[in-house]
Amino acid sequence: LEDENINIKFDILKDLEIKKINVLTNNPAKMKFLETLDVEIVERIPTIVEPNCHNKNYLNTKKEQMGHML
Length: 70
Fold this sequence. Notes:
70 residues; alpha+beta; two-stranded parallel ribbon; 43% helix
């Protein structure tokens, strides 16, 4: 996953015994990871980024190669 501190963040969820969560992400890998922790995803809230001449290739790579839901 792109966030190097993601395990720490999810350890906090487990320690606090959080069982349901709304997730602000386009990354399906993060959602799958939450499911492995038995955290129910109540709602996925997409991060909306409008393509422009500066980010178009980056967003396309995220979608095509990494499976992000854009």
